[in-house]
């Protein structure tokens, strides 16, 4: 069967948001004007085609008078689509879900960077007034993500959209896929960790601290900091590429937080962005917020000659 989309006719991807399922108004009321996490998709040939650097539009469905249906953002795909478990920051999106069943049904998603057009959306009414009424999202309102617009359709849209936003960075260098362990893949994790460490060192040095990187010594913290007056701080640095400070904390770090009175957890959100934000959490806050995520199971004592392993 001939597929509708190919490299020659693809102008941009389009992802839809149903405000009755995902709380767009709450997201905006919380001060957000950028979708820079992951967005849910159906896994199919379309999602497999999505590549870092592809243009993408954000479409709001529904009939809300405050937020009429139409195009509310334009930006870029920033990584390959993959299983939800392979991404660090999908909890950001989960925090605004209104439909729990829909949230739990999400299995596949893609990282995106989409500045929102809160002051100048291109509503469906404006599109139709301009003679644009053949977009797939207009013809098939119940279609799944991702939808798309053709090269010819995008050329017409650009007169209404205006200049496309600047890309957030070099897409080819940072790719999020479902192949890594834990949160994100190794390349993404390394880039985020390095950016977070750089931000932490700069911040403490600017405040007059002497900063020593001890991250390779497995102490339970990354930076040993001292002030001329004798004050000390043992800083564990965590970085995330999104806005939600959800991080993995090891047993060794919890041990240090419990035993070291000057231990501090420093979380750098939007670590790969020029607008990165740094928040300090006390050791008490870190320990109280930590919940088991992975359990170590030593099963060696259960092995016996009577129960051989499966070959």
Automatic annotation (TrEMBL):
It comes from the Bacteria. Residues 13-137 form the EVE domain. Residues 192-271 form the Protein NO VEIN C-terminal domain. Pfam families: EVE (PF01878), NOV_C (PF13020). SUPFAM superfamilies: PUA domain-like (SSF88697). This is Protein NO VEIN C-terminal domain-containing protein. It comes from Dactylosporangium maewongense.
């Amino acid at each position: 069967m001939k597929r509708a989309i190919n490299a020659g006719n693809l102008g941009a991807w389009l992802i839809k948001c149903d405000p009755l399922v995902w709380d767009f108004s709450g997201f905006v009321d919380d001060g957000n004007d950028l979708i820079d996490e992951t967005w849910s998709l159906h896994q199919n040939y379309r999602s497999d085609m999505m590549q870092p650097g592809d243009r993408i539009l954000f479409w709001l469905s529904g009939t809300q008078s405050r937020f009429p249906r139409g195009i509310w953002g334009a930006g870029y795909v920033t990584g390959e689509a993959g299983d939800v478990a392979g991404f660090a920051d999908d909890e950001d999106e989960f925090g605004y879900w209104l439909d729990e069943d829909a949230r739990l049904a999400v299995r596949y998603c893609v990282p995106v960077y989409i500045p929102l057009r809160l002051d100048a959306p291109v509503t469906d009414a404006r599109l139709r007034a301009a003679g644009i009424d053949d977009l797939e999202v207009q013809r098939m309102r119940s279609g799944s993500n991702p939808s798309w617009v053709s090269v010819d359709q995008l050329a017409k849209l650009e007169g209404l959209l205006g200049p496309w936003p600047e890309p957030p960075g070099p897409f080819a260098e940072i790719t999020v896929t479902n192949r890594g362990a834990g949160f994100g893949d190794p390349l993404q994790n390394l880039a985020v960790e390095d950016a977070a460490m750089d931000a932490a060192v700069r911040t403490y040095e600017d405040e007059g601290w002497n900063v020593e990187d001890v991250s390779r010594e497995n102490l339970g913290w990354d930076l040993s900091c001292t002030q001329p007056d004798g004050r000390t701080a043992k800083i564990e640095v965590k970085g995330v590429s999104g806005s939600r400070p959800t991080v993995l904390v090891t047993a060794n770090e919890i041990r240090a937080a419990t035993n070291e009175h000057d231990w501090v957890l420093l979380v750098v959100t939007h670590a790969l962005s020029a607008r990165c934000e740094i928040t300090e959490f006390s050791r008490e806050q870190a320990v109280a917020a930590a919940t088991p995520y992975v359990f170590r199971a030593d099963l060696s004592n259960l092995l016996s000659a009577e129960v051989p392993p499966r070959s």
